[in-house]
């Protein structure tokens, strides 16, 4: 989903996010730097005026009796004690640029989480991603949206061995030319099947799989931009969902 990071009613920027259901609880997954408003390495504010977001506005595309509708919801990012309402990685903290915001809104409707949004997964398909494989980032470059809510599918290529953790964190690199606003977007594999499969009364022509969370480009050190991005592996999510809260005074 498209999200806006707010200080009260003032928009500080935009990003991407997605819903994830785990143990009958709903979470809004995005990047640590989106929710905190800080550089995950230096902890310094990202905003040019050092503003820190205290709310997030979510534009979700939900299923209703009349079809699909866009719903806007605003959630707090910190409590009265300046402690985050969201969770960071239980061991690595901001070293893993992923955060999970619990959603306790019964009026949200029938939301489409990441597992429902992708095509039916073949239980007999043992495909794993490897170097040079194609992936897609579903986000909002410069806030660009289709029909006010739907994301742009940005193509990418796996650029490092996905089974190896880069820099001792659960992350790998992709080759892609992305822009601001895509941070927090889900990264998926999407391939046409050799043979369609059938299940739950419907057929599936494509194999889709949730791979991880996009968190931004590698910052170049010279005049030639390095078109590399970071993908945090989905395997890090349990440690984020069972993680700790971030203190804004830390």
Q: Could you characterize the architecture of this molecule?
A:
The chain is mainly beta and 250 residues long. It contains three helices and 15 strands. It has helices at 32-36, 114-117, 237-241, and strands at 2-7, 10-16, 18-22, 25-30, 55-64, 67-76, 83-88, 99-103, 134-139, 152-158, 171-175, 186-199, 202-217, 228-233, 244-247. The strands form four sheets. It has a six-stranded antiparallel beta barrel with strand order 9-10-11-14-13-12. A four-stranded antiparallel β-sheet has the order 2-1-5-6, with no helix packed on it. A hairpin with a 2-residue loop joins strand 3 (18-22) and strand 4. The protein is globular. The mean pLDDT is 85.
Topology:
Blueprint: E1 2-7, E2 10-16, E3 18-22, E4 25-30, H1 32-36, E5 55-64, E6 67-76, E7 83-88, E8 99-103, H2 114-117, E9 134-139, E10 152-158, E11 171-175, E12 186-199, E13 202-217, E14 228-233, H3 237-241, E15 244-247
Antiparallel strand pairs: 1-2, 1-5, 3-4, 4-8, 5-6, 7-15, 9-10, 9-12, 10-11, 11-14, 12-13, 13-14
Q: pLDDT average, as an integer?
A: 85
Number of E-state strands: 15
Instruction: Give the biggest beta sheet.
Output: 6 strands, antiparallel, barrel
Strand order of the largest sheet: 9-10-11-14-13-12
* Straight-line N-to-C gap: 29 Å
- Report the helical percentage: under 10%
Helix count from the secondary structure assignment: 3
- Poorly predicted parts: none
